[in-house]
């Protein structure tokens, strides 16, 4: 995929994801926090199941799960934690605060993962511009999450 298109697509999806915590929080008022997290991730699973079967014509490739390491199966768990925590914290931080804090956490940890070259990633150093960018994101997160409704 072209780099510019990848950036635009990711920004677009990031914009859509901004809706997830407040939508799930509203649902949580009807079915509880855990119920909303379950429904949200359950719908995701169903959509992906239909998409997978439609594109692959069955489940044959999933036999490769036998060869997967345990930690390669934790993505769904991590997603469930993200959905659950964001749906609780959106009531305190607002949608912007949740997204800012999530992105700050993602950036800091992902930069450390890049630096270490773990999980098959190419090693990318912590250059001065990258460190400044992370610092600015943390400052921005602190500013966005300030009380003052």
Structural notes for this entry:
- Keywords: Membrane, Transmembrane, Transmembrane helix.
- This protein is mainly α and 149 residues long.
- It has one domain (3-144).
- It is 74% helix and 0% strand.
- The longest helix has 42 residues, at 75-116.
- The radius of gyration is 18 Å and the shape is globular.
- The model has no long low-confidence stretch (mean pLDDT 91).
Low-confidence stretches: none
What number of domains? 1
- The number of distinct β-strands equals 0
Structural class: mainly alpha
What percent of the residues sit in helical stretches (DSSP H or I)?
over 70%
Count of individual helical segments: 5
The rounded distance between the terminal residues' Cα atoms is 41 Å
Range of strand content? under 5%
> What is the H/E order?
HHHHH
Average pLDDT score: 91
Kindly provide the radius of gyration, computed on alpha-carbon positions and rounded to a whole number of angstroms.
18 Å
Largest sheet: none
What best-fitting shape do the alpha-carbon axes yield? globular
Organism: Capillimicrobium parvum
Keywords: Membrane, Transmembrane, Transmembrane helix
Protein name: DMT family transporter
Pfam families: DMT_YdcZ
